[in-house]
Structures are given as C-alpha cells and as structure tokens.
Specification:
There is one protein chain. With 488 residues, this protein is an alpha+beta fold. The chain folds into 4 domains: 8-78, Arc Repressor Mutant, subunit A (Orthogonal Bundle); 88-150; 159-233; 241-482, Sandwich (Jelly Rolls), CATH 2.60.120. Helix content is 40%, strand content 25%. The chain contains 15 helices and 29 strands. The chain has a 7-stranded antiparallel β-sheet. The chain has a 4-stranded antiparallel β-sheet with strand order 17-28-20-21, with no helix packed on it. Strands 1-5-4 form a 3-stranded antiparallel β-sheet. Strand 7 and strand 8 form a beta hairpin. Helix 5 packs across helix 6. The radius of gyration is 40 Å and the shape is elongated. It starts with 7 loop residues before the first helix and ends in a 6-residue tail after the last helix. It comes from Symbiodinium pilosum. This is FCP protein.
C-alpha cells in the first residue's frame, strides 16, 4: 500500500479534481470523494489530509468548498456559508420546500429526514442549525408555520386538524361512556366509534393527554375480566362535591378511631361511642348518596363476599376500629355465631330480624340436651367439633331498622335474617364498626354435627373485582339513596 506524498502540486490537483466532480454531481459524500481521489492518484490519502486541503483551498480569499458533516459541496454553488448566515431567500426556500414535503407526507417528519430531503431537492449542503433557524422563524401573519418538538417537525395546520379531531373524538368518547351506569365500556366497543375507527393510537393519546381543569385525567384504562375497559372520571364540580362528603366521613371515622385507640384495652363502649357512631352513620349515608360516589370510589379497596350471607366493603382499618359496609341479600338466617370483637351496627337501608341465642332459662339452672360448637378461629376447616351442654334457643329478638343502631359484645351468639317487603325479601345494608383488637375467639354453634357442612360453606370468603364488584357497589348506592333519612 502506497501513501501519497502531499505537496503543493498534489494539493492543487486534489482541489481541481474535487471541483470537477462536484460540478458534475453535487453535493458528494466525503467518503465517496476520498475513494475517487485514491483511485485517481493511485495511492492512499488520509481523511484528515483531504479535509485539510478542502478547508484551506480558496480563491481570492473565498473558500472553494463547503464541508458539513460527511457532505462536500462547492461554496460558489451554495452561495452562502453553512453556519447561521443564510439569506432571507435561502430561508424562504427551506420553508417552502419543507411545507411541500410535509403536505405530501401527511404526517410529521424527523428533522434529520427533512434535512436529507432538503439537501437533495435544493442541491446543496444544509446544516441542522440553518434548517432549525429557517423553520423556527417561518411564519404567516405572525403565526408559526412549523412546530418542532424534540427531533420531530410538524406543520401547524396539520397539528390544528389533529387537535380538532382529538377534541371531537374525546367528546364522542365521553358521551358514549356516560351512557353506562359505571361510566365505562370495553376497549373494543370504543374502537367501533365513528371518530376512532380502530385507531388505538388516538385513544391512547386521549387517555394520556386529556385532563380536567384540576389536572386529573378525563379517562382511564382499567383491567377487568381479562380485558381492558375505558373509564370516564368524574367532572371537577361533582368530584369536588364528592370529596367534601368523603372528608366529612373520614373525619368522623378518624375521630372515633382516635377515641377507641386511646383507651387502655382499645375496645368500643356502648355508652361512650353511640353518639359518634350515629354521626358517622349519617356522614356515610351522605357520602354513598353523593352523585359521584361510584366514579370517585377507590377501586383498589377490598370488596368480598361470604357466600349465602353478605357482601363486604372494607373501608377502614385503624389503631382502634375497623369499618365495613355489609350488604345482606340472602333470605336465609345466618348461622349462630359470635364475633372476636365488640361491634356497632348502623342500618342504612332495609331491616333484619336480630336474634340473641342462649342455652338455658337462667344462670345455674339445669341444662337439657346439648349442642355442637366449632372454634372457627383455631379450626377454620371445621374438623374438630365438640359438644356443650344445653339446647340452643332464642332468648331475645328485635327488628334492626333503617337509621337504627345497636351494640353487641364480642362473646354474644347471634343471627340475622333479612325481612320481606311484601312478597320479596328486601336487601339490607349496614355499617359494621368493630374493635381492631379482638377479645375472644369466634365460635359457630349448631344443633347437630350433621348441620356443619352447610355452615362451613357459609364461612368461606370470596373476593370480588371487575364488573361484579361494580354491580355490588351500584346496588349499595341505589339502596342508600332510596332509604329515608330518619327511620321507617
């Protein structure tokens, strides 16, 4: 391999050859120029040698060549330096050519793609800075023609059409979702709307960018039943209204929690806590009846059911108390059981028969017969039943009515049974408030061992989510709103 000895004569020859080639075809890639020179001179030139010659070659003090990145052109052809000194005519050329290519494309283009096309159409080397300057200063009646975001160039009129289309699609989406009780529809149904026509990119853009005045997203995508659902969040006015109701309820719950948590044994007390529980009950009713309750509901909150008995919504667990909603829809009477903790029950809607159970007429009397007991706390599988003397019998009954409240000590065996309204069994909705710290085990009591399989089935909890959860929450909302404010 022979390296060229570059003297003054060779420099002039190189300058002459490059000038000749550029007049035939311009601009040229520097690598192509280097390859042709090596072939012509029969030796090997360094890239740096050629760059030095092209940068220093001039006529009457004016550079002959313009080198930008990997491209070479004749300075007399470009008629202008490359870095920030384009004439207004040159900037206009760039603006017009860029507008034409964006109109033809019908979509935004990368800045590098724009520069490449411009160099081909204008037959000259154009630097990034020159293109940016030309596009950023191009305007019509004071309105910019182009928007440059990062490395993407967009024609403003295309942007306006895009924004207009997105606004219309957002309005159609909102109307469609709010026709549903839960403000939500499956993704594939949204894709069928006229404004979308299967355009998932448009829907993703709306979900990611559309916001209420307070900054919350207008739409969310949630996963339920193995598919995606599009959900409309509540308006600012209804959201603020619902948040006020929620804050009032939270304040009442925290007040009671602090009061119980500050006691030595951390137990609820009937005489000291009844007034606060009643206030909490009224605040709960107003919160659930709020027009934005379901859309603003925290969908990460645990909702489950005890099959054959009730649906439970787990609202709060603090240092002193736990708060849940209980929805009873089954007409059957619950099994005889006690609770690990003292509790209050506040009835929001409906009524049920509440029975207290015992095994004898009085203290110290002889007990006839026996009954079967399961310690559910220590034996959740119901595998170790044992007997206790005395036949089970109801010793007290009362009707638990809307807006009523009662207190039950932890060790007291009881049952509840929803009552009929006419010929139909009416659902019952209650607030269940219990001690966080338990004071005894939970026992299930039956008359005979043969009754145990049914009772065991009733004690297996099942989590709820997706549409099933939403339907239960909707039922809770409807029931509460139908209930009179001060009893029936």
């Amino acid at each position: 391999m022979t390296f060229c000895n570059v003297d003054l004569g060779t420099e002039q020859q190189i300058s002459f050859l490059v000038k000749k080639w550029l007049r035939r075809s311009r601009p040229m890639n520097l690598a192509a120029v280097l390859e042709k020179l090596n072939a012509e001179l029969g030796g090997v030139l360094y890239r740096e040698q050629v760059l030095h010659i092209l940068h220093t070659s001039s006529k009457h003090g004016i550079p002959r060549f313009a080198v930008d990145g990997g491209m070479v052109d004749l300075m007399q052809t470009t008629g202008r330096p490359l870095h920030g000194h384009f004439t207004s005519d040159g900037q206009k050329q760039i603006s017009v050519a860029t507008k034409k290519m964006l109109v033809r494309s019908g979509k935004p283009m990368s800045l590098q793609e724009v520069i490449s096309v411009l160099q081909g159409s204008l037959k000259c080397i154009i630097g990034r800075e020159e293109v940016l300057q030309a596009l950023q200063t191009s305007a019509k009646q004071g309105v910019p023609r182009f928007q440059i975001a990062g490395d993407v160039v967009t024609l403003v009129q295309q942007l306006k059409r895009s924004f207009s289309h997105q606004r219309e699609a957002s309005k159609e989406l909102s109307r469609f979702l709010r026709q549903d009780d839960f403000n939500m529809r499956p993704w594939h149904q949204v894709m069928g709307l006229q404004q979308f026509e299967g355009n998932g990119e448009l829907l993703n853009s709306i979900v990611a960018t559309e916001c209420h005045g307070d900054g919350r997203r207008r739409f969310e995508v949630r996963r339920a039943h193995s598919r995606d659902w599009v959900f409309a969040t509540e308006s600012v006015k209804r959201y603020v209204q619902q948040e006020k109701l929620k804050k009032r309820l939270v304040a009442a719950i925290h007040h009671l929690d602090a009061q119980v948590g500050g006691r030595e044994k951390k137990h609820l007390d009937e005489s000291r806590d009844m007034e606060l529980v009643s206030m909490l009950g009224q605040a709960m009713r107003e919160w659930i009846c709020g027009p934005g309750w379901l859309p603003c509901f925290d969908h990460t909150m645990k909702v489950d059911e005890v099959p054959g008995i009730m649906t439970r919504v787990h609202l709060f667990e603090g240092h002193g108390i736990q708060v849940r909603l209980h929805l009873f829809t089954d007409p059957g009477e619950t099994y005889i059981h006690n609770h690990r903790s003292n509790f209050f029950s506040f009835c929001l809607r409906g009524k049920y028969r509440h029975r207290i159970w015992g095994t004898g007429a009085g203290f110290g009397e002889h007990l006839d017969g026996e009954h079967v007991v399961i310690n559910r706390t220590q034996d959740p599988g119901f595998n170790k039943p044992f007997t206790r003397p005395g036949q089970l019998s109801c010793i007290f009954t009362h009707e638990h009515l809307t807006s009523a409240c009662y207190f039950l000590p932890a060790e007291t065996p009881h049952t509840v049974q929803p009552q009929k309204e006419g010929t139909q069994v009416a659902p019952v909705l209650t607030i269940y408030i219990k001690d966080t710290v338990g004071s005894t085990d939970t026992f299930v009591r039956v008359a005979a061992v043969t009754d145990l399989p049914d009772q065991h089935q009733q004690t297996e909890d099942r989590p709820l989510d997706g549409l099933e959860m939403l339907e239960r929450l909707q039922r809770i909302h409807e029931l509460t709103c139908l209930a009179p404010a001060h009893g029936i």
